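Troubleshooting: if your tokenizer reports a length mismatch, compare your output against this known-good record of 588 residues.
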Amino acid sequence: MSEHISLDQRRHSCAHLLASAVKQIYKGAHNAIGPSIESGFYQDFDMGDYKISEEDLPKIEEKMREILKTWGPFVVREVSVEQAKKDFAENPYKLELIDDFASQGKTITENDPGNFLDLCKGGHSDNPQEEMKYFKLLSVAGAYWRGDEKNKMLTRIYGTCFPTQEELNAHLEMLEQAKLRDHRKLGKELDLFVFSDLVGPGLPLFTEKGTIIREELTKFIWSLMKPYGYTRVTIPHIAKADLYKVSGHWDKFADDIFHVRSQKTDQEFVMKPMNCPHHTQIFASRPRSYKDLPIRMSEVTAVYRDENVGQLQGLSRVRSITQDDAHVFCRLDQVADEAKGLYEIIQTFYKAFGMPLRVELSLSDPKHPEKYLGGAEVWERAEGQLRELLREIGVEFTEVAGEAAFYGPKIDFKATDAIGRIWQLATIQLDFNLPERFELEYTDDTGEKVRPVMLHRAVLGSVERFISVLIEHYGGAFPVWLAPVQIGLAPVSDKHIESAHALAKELDALGIRVDVDDASETIGNKIRKAAGQKIPYVVVFGDKEIEVDPSTGSGRDWMIRVRGEKDQVKMSKGEFVERVLGEIKERR
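Known-good structure output:
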């Protein structure tokens, strides 16, 4: 039986097991919600007067294993609102959910594996003692009830569950690796970005070194896009609220929009949460002919989202989000070629980082059409276009209902990093709705006015989030082309400093980023600092590196410390420079 249960069912069932254990240990605690998530599950609790930490997790785990021995198949039953309120009379969170479900006309369902009644629609284990035994509690965090910072802060316990002990062990090992690679820790150690209380939460400040990484990434993307005919545009960071009311973002992003009001005109503006509405107005600024299409606009620019403070996390979740954004306005018969070009750009980009991609076709949820703009016919047409494109390319893909953007279906690319984690980063989105809402048009070859089709695309998505992924993917040891400092020079003594700076200037002129450590410290300290900064190459610069071999008239060979290698490498200056320039050019 256990091989037929889904991972979500195992994990969701474990969330109930966790709730049962906590309520038995901490009398008076209330469980709120406990869903399965991509990496496991969590359960939120109002702990009352109790305060728990990760030190309490082994005790809770022990109680979970004790309870699991008594559980059988989950029994789900429909109940009336009155019965549900009677059953959960002591739990204010369940009562609130019951009222919400009732107001929406939803069926109220309860489940019970034998000795723990909970409010839930189902989707559980039929054989808990076998299917749920490989679990582990991971961490404790705070979370506002229903994600609203105006509500009470609850205690959230995270855990995970797998079909086998081997899979669980592999996941726990990955989590240990992830701790060592945490971008917040490495970002500080490598001096890449900082946060300031005076600037505000979720608003990262990038240092000189962090800015180098940002610029190298955006230059790389532009080098890939320019051959496909993309042009750069620039838009302001604010707009009238009307722009987003027309686009539909006003309703969909209502809770996330930063509002700005002009003191002089009392006019309402917003900090842009999206770039696409601005780009539609560039298209609409003058008459367009079918001969003008496709029009490909590209921009790297910030958008702003009023994220809850409790959900902010380093560069992974911020309020100032730099988007690598592009939009294509094209004819219907051009969609396939344009999307194929974007597919090729994305594949080439991720190959440079050694991150294999998995492709998903994200579709609308037919059970909830109210979540999306446009009618069923438009969606059917758009989804069919992308499905046919992927089949034509010959790539394996999975269809996922309910994951589309509110304005159209999309092709999502899931990248796997060095320790096996999967990240959703790149996307190609097909949109018939914004052109309709903004009444965009072009003149076709018969003189008729026709709506263009719009393609949205992101290669790395959020620059901030992608940098957080890269820091952890490489463990801070960036490849030469991306490293903020590519060569470190460590002068042996004060008399070598001038020559080291002269060499640095020479290398800088060739496009190589160099740092001279001219501190009055021992060579041992300088080498250790360079290793801590994960600089790819370090040259101890002394008499030998300055000397000229009288028999050849050229410099003597250097001994070069290569990051990650125990033994030094012997090379002439010319060979070394050629090697570094080659790695930069080939993005290695």
